[in-house]
């Protein structure tokens, strides 16, 4: 049973979430006793997939086949899956997976599970775990159809890259007959060096406790020292102190970094729902009764305006001692 | 402009999540049901804004049994013109998308606006499936939508960026934050909702591709370790040596 992994790129390079999906696909293939093949979309460095165990990559070299136009990507996947006889298709549950995987499911009749957090258990069907209720619970879902599609939760597995280089073949697919009428007019902010929130391993976040947007300097400074991505609570984005894409929680971005530092955030249930998958949570709040402390690993009870500059100093000292 | 907005019934965001029947079913006892926030705040409100400025109508559709009726009325109270409920248990996204497609097939909608995901099953699945079943283009995670003479311009959110895309009507799009501002229904809307049509249609009989077998809750967190606010070097040491996160 072959496994096909759909690998997307950002500025021509394999996305981290795709590398993680590829590694997952390699593990699924070895459990099923088949081959894992990656289908990459206009990748300039597809051989890097070898570091997670992929031997063979089919690389599409047609810029119109991109996640902006899911119908064309679906056509490429169907062609590649037929060529290698794939029974399982793996995506990362990122903006590409969300755009393409459901379409593929409807087209092929293959059952889809998204937000997957485990390898399949094939002892009784094809059962995978997924996060539900915004991370407040998990579920085991059986895919009933013969062909299966899974889309894995970013950062759920992490990437353990080793040595290796994949062989890359160019893969051509005729999409001239597909006219979905979608044109991309402009791409904004895609080149930023900052790691996007769903992929970030370190996140520094602040809430209404900071009183106003002018006080975010110390938060950005902490992110800068650590190489972290900044986030915020919902009201902070709603009142326009911070951009909407920083809003984390049940109705914002769900994240699961290695470290989440929450400053002046009370820890409302809807906030926690989007961040409780973080491996380590640090809470800084002046109110010892703030509900966030119940979900935290480390807590500091104190005024953010005193604690954060002190912590930044300590991080800086640590960084200069540890490189 | 004729707009279709699929809405889902979900537990209120403060609900205590628990399971019954040997962890095979969500425990609905004491649960307050609401319209899925993405569907209500973004998809529905943007659909209403578009028809308020350029005319047309908004139809909301739900795939579910009669227990969905109160949240459907809420959508009508916010201003939707009519509602449809496909009378079947929404077992999985495939069934939901197929049933919506079966209803919408011959109705000539100019666009279908969904939420980006449901907050209970977190699928982000129905929109893309529906687009494929209806053979329409799909724009996922739209945070802005303008329509001008049969062409829509949208911001599509990607990791760390935004793509500005153009597409001809009709199309399917899923709505994320930024699309619109949440509205609160007023008394007049609530009164009007009582007399607006809520049509119940029979299901076409789609079959599920997936089955939920079992649920579980995450392991409880151990107690927080408090660090003295004066001693941030100690916090850094713990994060490095104990938590190994820096
Ligand atoms: C349907 C629904 C969905 C929602 N979705 C989300 C979501 O996705 N994400 C989200 O974040 N919220 C969400 N919310 C809102 C949520 O309920 C809370 O209102 C919100 O998270 C509170 O934000 P906050 O913690 O920044 O502000 P507050 O609740 O005002 O808390 C501020 C905190 O800062 C502390 N503080 C004040 N001054 C200082 C100081 N000088 N130093 C240190 N600490 C200080 C206070 O003790 C307090 O704990 C949602 C709500 C609803 C109803
Ligand atoms: N039972 C349902 N009836 C109608 N629309 C639904 C239903 N479930 C989900 N949807 C729509 O599909 C979107 C995506 O849902 P999901 O794929 O389940 O995350 C939701 O935001 C709704 O707009």
Descriptive overview:
With 323 residues, chain A is of the alpha/beta class. Helices cover 27% and strands 27% of the residues of chain A. Chain A contains seven helices and 17 strands. Chain A has helices at residues 16-32, 70-84, 95-108, 217-226, 234-238, 269-275, 304-322; strands at residues 2-7, 9-10, 13-14, 36-41, 56-60, 86-92, 111-116, 127-132, 137-143, 148-152, 167-171, 182-188, 202-206, 229-232, 259-263, 280-285, 298-301. In chain A, helix 4 (217-226) runs parallel beside helix 7. The longest helix of chain A has 19 residues, at 304-322. Chain A is elongated, with a radius of gyration of 21 Å. The model of chain A has no long low-confidence stretch (mean pLDDT 95). Chain B has 246 residues and is of the alpha/beta class. Chain B has one domain (2-218): Rossmann fold (3-Layer(aba) Sandwich), CATH 3.40.50.620. Chain B is 27% helix and 31% strand. Chain B has six helices and 15 strands. In chain B, strand 10 (151-158) and strand 11 (161-168) form a beta hairpin. The longest helix of chain B is centred in the first third of the chain and has 18 residues, at 37-54. Chain B is globular, with a radius of gyration of 21 Å. The model of chain B has no long low-confidence stretch (mean pLDDT 96). Chains A and B meet through helix 2, helix 3, strand 7, strand 8 and strand 9 of A and helix 1, helix 3, helix 4, strand 9 and strand 10 of B. The structure holds flavin-adenine dinucleotide (FAD) and adenosine monophosphate.
List the SSEs and their pairings.
The complex is a heterodimer of chains A (323) and B (246).
Chain A: E1 2-7, E2 9-10, E3 13-14, H1 16-32, E4 36-41, E5 56-60, H2 70-84, E6 86-92, H3 95-108, E7 111-116, E8 127-132, E9 137-143, E10 148-152, E11 167-171, E12 182-188, E13 202-206, H4 217-226, E14 229-232, H5 234-238, E15 259-263, H6 269-275, E16 280-285, E17 298-301, H7 304-322
Parallel strand pairs in A: 1-4, 1-6, 4-5, 5-11, 6-10, 7-10, 13-14, 13-15, 15-16, 16-17
Antiparallel strand pairs in A: 2-3, 8-9
Helix pairs in contact in A: 2-3, 4-7
Chain B: E1 2-6, E2 9-11, E3 19-20, E4 25-26, E5 33-35, H1 37-54, E6 57-63, H2 69-78, E7 82-86, H3 93-104, E8 111-115, H4 126-134, E9 138-148, E10 151-158, E11 161-168, E12 171-175, H5 187-193, E13 198-201, E14 210-216, E15 225-226, H6 232-242
Parallel strand pairs in B: 1-6, 1-8, 6-7, 7-13, 8-12, 9-12
Antiparallel strand pairs in B: 2-5, 3-4, 9-10, 10-11
Helix pairs in contact in B: 2-5, 3-4
